[in-house]
Queue: 2 jobs
Job 1
Amino acid sequence: MAKIETKNAVVQYQDDQETKEVLFQTILKWFTKHESFCGEVLVQSDFAYEELPDFMGDVAEKIFKFDLEWKE
């Protein structure tokens, strides 16, 4: 597990090669599903703004598996 420390939190997350491969394939699958292969398409498409928050939430919880601890 790797760790990020910020002013307000300490976060541990998966950092192994399998996690990196799953992340890569998940993102590539999303681009392919939406035929979004350039930044312009993403910026101008409503679906990106509608779907990306849920997609990133899944990435955070199911792939990185962030273990968050807030500092007091």
Note: The chain has one domain: 2-70.
Job 2
Amino acid sequence: MLEKINLIRVVKLLSLLSCFVLLIIACKSPTGPSSSISKDIIGDWEGCDGRVVRFGRLDRDTITGRYTKLGGLKQYGFEQDEIGYKVVQLRPGIYTGQVKWRTTSGGVSWKNVTISIEGDRYSDTSSDGCAKEMIRVKVTN
């Protein structure tokens, strides 16, 4: 009799465990929660004044942003292909580092910056008004 009770308990436990596993499998996304939204900064980003920043890997850890189109930055003495960003990735979609600032009189400084990438939207904490929010430039063939 005791064996029969233990067998029933084991069957109930296995049934419950099977239901739990099936529930987890059914609710889990096969590719993860953010696979359809890019969080990668690599590529070209355009600001509201026509500037374009191309982010690319300098080495395994460091990512640089070069100005491929100057737009309104020309008035501050920036040059084509000049490095204006040096960042590293903290986690998917979040980058930290420095952004270059220039004054109209030629002064140069680097300010700390934190960048967030969500799909085709760029936002940061330290740029001027036309780079605080940028959009990804679509590559056309």
Note: The longest strand covers residues 108-118.
